[in-house]
Amino acid sequence: MKLVVIGVDGASWNILEKIKGLEVLSKKSLEKTSAWAILESTSPPWSIPAWNSLFSGLTPKSMKLYSFLKLEDNTFKPITYKLDDIVYVWDILSVYDKKTLAVNIPCIYTAKPVKGAIIAGFIANRLNLAYPKWVNKVLETTGYIVDIIDSKPITDEEYFEVNVKSAEKRTALFLELARKLKQIDLGIIVFTETDRMQHRFLKTRWSIIEKYYEVLDKLVAKIIDNLDDEAYKIIVSDHGFQKPVKAFNVNQYLALNNLLAVEGVNIRYRVKLLVDHLVSNNYIPLTIARKIAYKTGLARRLRKHGLEDHENNKTRILGAYMPSEEGGVFIVGVNEAYKKLVSEKALRKLNNVNGILAYSIEDDSLGPSILIESETYSFSNKIGLPLWHKTIRATHSKYGVFAILGRHVENRHLGKVKITDITPTILYALNLPIPSYMEGQVIIKAFTRQVKPKKMDISYAKMKIKVNLTRKKIKENIEE
Ligand SMILES: [Zn+2]
Known about the structure:
Layout: E1 3-8, H1 13-16, H2 27-33, E2 35-40, H3 47-54, H4 60-63, E3 69-72, E4 75-78, H5 80-83, H6 89-95, E5 100-105, E6 116-120, E7 130-131, H7 135-142, H8 156-181, E8 186-191, H9 193-201, H10 206-225, E9 232-236, E10 240-242, E11 247-249, H11 250-256, E12 260-262, H12 267-280, H13 283-296, H14 299-302, E13 317-321, E14 328-332, H15 336-351, E15 357-360, E16 370-373, E17 378-380, E18 388-389, E19 395-397, E20 399-405, E21 412-418, H16 422-429, E22 434-435, E23 455-456, H17 460-479
Parallel strand pairs: 1-8, 1-9, 2-21, 5-6, 5-8, 11-17, 22-23
Antiparallel strand pairs: 2-20, 3-4, 6-7, 9-20, 10-19, 11-18, 12-13, 13-14, 14-16, 15-16
Helix pairs in contact: 6-17, 7-8, 8-9, 8-10, 9-10
The structure holds zinc ion.
The site of zinc ion (ZN) has 4 residues, from helix 9.
């Protein structure tokens, strides 16, 4: 393997600097061994669009991808078709007849033909999880866990165990496939468990976070030990993490400002919401409730209730509405002329809130109209809960981690890099040309021998045609 990208979802310097005694992943050891930087993620800093940006060299603006949701016929749906329409770094490697092994890619929906092998992650169509088909057998024998959803009320210890198991099995799968494929140019493995663990434990149980990083550190060291010394190793996250001071209830705010009307939220529903909230935002009652629910099989009662659960009733929501905590505000159930008006007014109102930045998105009718972000607060979408409320759930921040190690890497602090710089840097390290449509820059300061990056003058549309032709060829060769 010439280069391996180890993706650690949600890894943050403010977390890594507090963890001591790790072989690879602590801030101290990375400072000693790598060229490292603060990685500036996308806006909003969520896995979709961040991983897509990271693996394509494109900004959310040119991908027209700001959220994992789209609004179609007044219903929220996952934006899966857009994820498959992007040209990723492994597609470019295929064009150059270079081999990729990519495991648990969190930003694609379908595993499309690639030279080598690819396995999708949490958002994937489970019927098209892997390419080529023989990989599915390896998934079965190694027991690949795609994702762990934090909705099941299992205890903290069980949650930790299942996340450990998932990361261990994924590493075993990666190493097994690396053995089978041989002569790999680019290896990618993404650990999404860190994100799930940090959401749940960063504010409440630091010791579990620490314990988890110890496990992950050993797995990462194992992957690195399997590479030869010449190989480049990139450790990168898609965004950082923060402990929000409190949660800002975006939909409640919009409703209070007459920009959102929601029908059918009756008193019983509000009471239930409040009880759920009181339980799920106080650590000890939550822990007890999880244990009881687990033992008595009342799992479903603890599931969080979003208004989008009622999406069958299409007339329920009217106005500016944020369907998930990621900060995308959609204009629902109003005609085009009115939509602009509502959007402008909501933008002004949201920008009036201290510590929150709101901006409008104009180039996509199916995506959100407004994006909001904050480095202080998390966002809540539960109408009926207070405007500002307590939260024990940690949330994303815009500033993640980048580090590159290897024989031809300088040991230095690189300052800040952009998430779009990662793909050009991978191509540079593999001695491949960088397509001119990419928006990121090669992080050239990281390398000891700095040659001028090779450029390829090509439009994104032309590259897509090339990639589709290559995919067709790969498919024909494999299925003959
Ligand atoms: Zn997350």
